[in-house]
Every structure is written in structure tokens, then in C-alpha cells.
Amino acid sequence: MIVIIDYHVGNLMSVQNAFLKLGMDVVVSRDHDVIRQAKGIVLPGVGTFPVAMEHLKKYDLIDILKERKEAGIPILGICLGMQILFEKGYEVTPTEGLGFLKGEVKLMDVQAKTPHMGWNELILTQDHPLMKNIKNGDYVYFVHSYMAYPTDDELIACCEYGQARITAVVAKDHVMGCQFHPEKSGAVGRKILLAFKEMVQ
Prior knowledge:
By secondary structure, this protein is an alpha/beta fold.
């Protein structure tokens, strides 16, 4: 079973529907007992970094997420859900993140329009099981103004936008994140979600 964490930060249904269409056993919950039964956890998210962290605290979800992470449960963050996996964010006000990945989240420093919205090509920087069915040049759908600045060893894929390298996929072992929306990225997104499914079985 995959649990999509319900912490009142947007796009829960679209993420759930994407998994359901692929025949996955998936539920939306913030119940600790349900989360402990999960073989995989998804952190979705639309909004701002500080609000996301505030809601995780409000619903008492930070410790259970850390517990499941330490237990080796695969965790996938999507968009804002990916960003809060990092140590700190600077959107609106400096805010501590979950710290599952090294690095910070800051306003995109690009010579192009923000938010970065639309389809862009992936550039793979290293291998990871989440991306095993993806190749250089595959297109995915982005919507964001802030981006993660990870360490090189945790950067799995990026894209080019405004003459800058934009973080697209990050991972450290079983903790993973996509800045783009796989649930809105057509066949390429489905391949990524199916790879995650294989990791949680």
C-alpha cells in the first residue's frame, strides 16, 4: 500500500488518481497507524515552504515521517513535497525543512520568466531506480518559482531553463523527489510512478 500524506497542501486527488490509473493500492491519510502500514509514502504539495512545514507540525506528521524514513520506507516528494525534504527553505521566510536531503530551497536565479511553467527536457546526471525507464530528452511538466540546490551526489536529473541548470530529480537511497509533476507528465510521468511502484513492492 502507498500512502499519500494528507497535510492540507493541495493536489491530493490528482496524485491519487494517477496512482489508481496504474492499478496501485493507494490511500490518502494522515493517520499514524495507516502511515505505519505503508510500503511507500508520497509527499505531494502545492503552495509555500513555510505553510507546508507548518501543516506537517499541525498534524503531528514530522516525527512519523522521520520514523518511516529511518525504517527504510521509500518516500517520494512531488513539487513542494520534494522541496520540504531539504534542510531549509527561503520562500517568504527562512524555514527548517525535514532534512532528509542535503541542501536548501531558494528563488530560482534564472534569466527567464518565473514561474518556470510548462514542459522541459530531462538531463540525467546519474542512475537511480526511480528513473530506470527514463532517457535524456524525455519531457516533463514543471510549475515552480523556487528550486532546490542539492549536493551533486544527490542530484539525479536536471533541466536547462534561462541558461541555468534547474534541479528536476533528487534522491538519497530510498528518499526521492521530483520538482516536476509526474502525475501531469503523460507517459513519462507514468513510467516514473511505475518505477516507484516497483520499489515499494
